[in-house]
Amino acid sequence: MHRRQYQLMYLALPAMLGVAACGDPLAPRDVAGIYTLQNTPRVILGSAFSVRILADTFVLRADGTGVRRTHYEVTDTASTTPVREARSAGFTFRVEERAVGFLWLCPPATVCVGVRQRDWYDLSGETRAMWSREDDRRYAWSGARAP
To answer: In this predicted model, what pLDDT tens digit does every residue of 27-86 receive, in sequence order?
Structure first.
């Protein structure tokens, strides 16, 4: 190969790699991992009770499935004694333009009615954090890959 051909190949290689890297959309495997709630907003639901989220975790798997585990405290306004509860919900998800869309699965022995819609969470630049579009909940990647 002549010197001129080496120079052209050397100059073209970064451009080709840049196009390939920029054109690759994020996939579930790119965002898979465990995300934990970083702030604990208080949610008031009507005048009958309030809910405070104690812990909230998303486990995103590389195959596009996952589970959300939430620990919360419910206080009835008639009594001041809070009740602690935990829930888990399965979901499928997809990644589109720096956001993750969760489609919640209908639990067994439950009749799901109405339209199922996706809940969207935006991703940070490095996909190591996500935040809800609905409120101020922010989640950080824990550094662990989902089982």
So the answer is: 999 999 999 998 876 676 667 788 888 889 999 999 999 999 999 888 887 877 889 999
Domain range enclosing 97: 25-39+56-69+88-141
Count structural domains, the chain.
1
CA-based nearest residue to 121, from 45, 31, 22: 31
CA distance 141 to 145: 9
Residue 114 lies in a domain: yes
* CB-side neighbour CA atoms (13 Å) of 127: 17
